[in-house]
Amino acid sequence: MEALLSKIIEENRYLISKGKVADYIPALSKVNPNNIGICLMDTDGNIYKAGDYNVKFTIQSISKIMSLMLSLIDNGEESVFKKIDYEPTEEPFNTLFKLDFPHTVKPSNPMINSGAIVTTSLIKGKGQEKFSRLLEFIKMVTKNPNISYNEEVYLSEKETGHKNRAMAYLMRARGFITGDVEEILDVYFKQCSIEVTTLDIAKIGLFIANRCKLINQDTQISGDRVASIVTAIMATCGMYNFSGEYAATVGIPSKSGVGGGILGTIPYKMGIGIFSPALDQYGNSIVGYGIMKDLSRELNLNIF
């Protein structure tokens, strides 16, 4: 299996030149574009890895999966989806478009920035307690007590996050979020700056695949419904406004982040973690997409 993973990495390495590392967050522009890593974990406990699987990178929008799960655990489905919709969108992940339309009553879904900021606001706790609870949740799911956030990336995101700040204040004015906007944004910037490896995100993918049960334990953190919601939203919205084509060509519920990560989950079977920081026009890892297509085909992983 690991020989196959190494082969898939090499066959997709050429795509690095067709992508571009995120530079709108200055600290992200410093990452090595040549890093490529893969980790697969299945429900039988097997772990397969290749390439730069142990290189740390910031989780970015993959954190939206975890904040959604925690907000669902804290509030229940009905309360969360009164504030955010379930629907895919053809708009880019960082759009403000439609937020100020009079007929818009909530952001499209929790996987775009506006919806994710609302999701973060719904996590219980005051001030930094929201972030502490989210970080502890990620540590528990990954069984990695050493996970923390990258302060340089956090400060860079906070300093340059003008568009996120604009949409947050607009949503506060519209009543989509309540509370202190700067406190909520601070938690959001920090959660995006959490550092992980492909092993960590494969464990999160396996946790979802295993219906929110902890790895090697029978402890179920939440009901099956949370796993179903998260998996469905990943399948329809997790790759931004490329999600439809991705579902047709890959067929694995996934979530990307502009740090170069892609998390995949295959219900009852497997979690997948991929890292390669060069991005395509949609903000998804361009090499990661190529790898996921090959993995889906080689291992017959397409759930559709």
Automatic annotation (TrEMBL):
Residues that bind substrate: S61, N113, E157, N164, Y188, Y240, V258
UniProt keyword list: Acetylation, Hydrolase
Catalytic reaction list: L-glutamine + H2O = L-glutamate + NH4(+)
Cited InterPro entries: Beta-lactam/transpept-like, Glutaminase
Molecular function via GO: glutaminase activity
GO biological processes: glutamate biosynthetic process; L-glutamine catabolic process
Keyword NADP: no
Enzyme Commission designation: 3.5.1.2
Family membership: Belongs to the glutaminase family.
Subunit structure: Homotetramer.
The name this protein goes by in its record: Glutaminase
UniProt organism field: Tissierella praeacuta DSM 18095
Phylogenetic lineage: Bacteria, Bacillati, Bacillota, Tissierellia, Tissierellales
Gene assigned in the entry: glsA
